Hints:
Blueprint: E1 9-14, H1 24-36, E2 40-47, E3 54-58, E4 61-66, E5 70-72, E6 75-77, H2 81-92, E7 96-101, H3 104-111, E8 120-125, H4 133-138, H5 140-149, E9 152-155, H6 158-163, E10 174-176, H7 183-186, H8 190-202, E11 207-212, H9 221-228, E12 235-240, H10 246-252, E13 259-263, H11 267-276, E14 279-282, H12 293-300, E15 305-308, H13 315-318, E16 325-328, H14 333-345, H15 347-364, H16 367-381
Amino acid sequence: MKRGVYIMKKVLQITNYMYPHIGGIEQVTRDILNSIKDNYEQKIICFNHEKGNVIDTVDGVEVTRVNCQVKISSQSIALSFGKKLKKLLKEFKPDIVIFHYPNPFVAHSLMKHLKHKEFKFIIYWHLDITKQKILGKLFNGQNKRLLKYADKIIATSPNYKEESPWLSQKKEKVVVIPNCIDEKRLSYTDIDLKKAQDIKDQYKDKTILFGFGRHVPYKGLIHLVNASKLLSDDYVVLIGGKGKLTDELKKAAKNDNKVRFLGAIPDDELKATILACDIFCFPSITKNEAFGIGLAEAMYYQKASVTFNIPCSGVNYVSLKDVTGLEVENSNDEAFAKAIETLKNDEKLRNKFEKNAKERVEELFSSEEFKKNINNLLGELE
């Protein structure tokens, strides 16, 4: 009697961009790729972050990159995307399609294949469309159809599942799979520890506060700048990153000698700065900050944090109020400053948060936990 031949199931991911383009959705796409590569044959289709139509590989998986002609309200448009997607679906014949949302113009092309689909359909719901209010309303009908055809919907936190106006309507389909940190990237050496000590020595006798991220409105870094003005000279406030608000932030901090702008920070310097800081500040203010992987990374380094309360965001799931850090009223600069002072002055409380933070990340946000969760979900759909 002949033994049966095992045929690997096929997974197609449809995403915005892909490594080496760097971004949150791109990183999750790559995390999935590496989590399932032992069990599934894979392909990926996305926009090209450079010019032209290109087929290459990332971590051994074929990636079709479609030339982007224009962007409208931050949404990429490629006239040939629909044709490329149709060809890939026909030739690759995926068993499972994972669509990374939001990506409304690509969703329009995908919609044609959903009514009579021959594959299981997963929506990876990274965040609601909030910034583009007019576009958001235009795509309401599209969202309803996407959710109707979805076999499963992935939310990155229970907060999004319960509070998103879209996901809360389809709770029976929603599975919570938190994003994960990259422990390999976060591992540090004696050289990193030496750099961290150099930073501590540079700001000797100061309590080091650190916050970083793109300088855009939802990151809320203006509130860290404003909170700094309410603090004594016992602190130094290090701010990493850059963006369209950089000049505005620098202007707001002009007469505050405590604030230092570090610019874009390479990985090795980022590690050293997080390791050196006494308190991690994460002042994001809207649910555009759907999860907060930078917050999880700081917690992995055993840092107590200060955050704002953000309705619907996973930030307050990543760091738990009064467990791994302090959480205050959204956009309240005075409360943010007061929380910083509390952590500075209560070493016992700070140490408790630091210990709890590390344990929470290892339990819920490790790459191994992510791998288990995503493979379990795909296995359920086979």
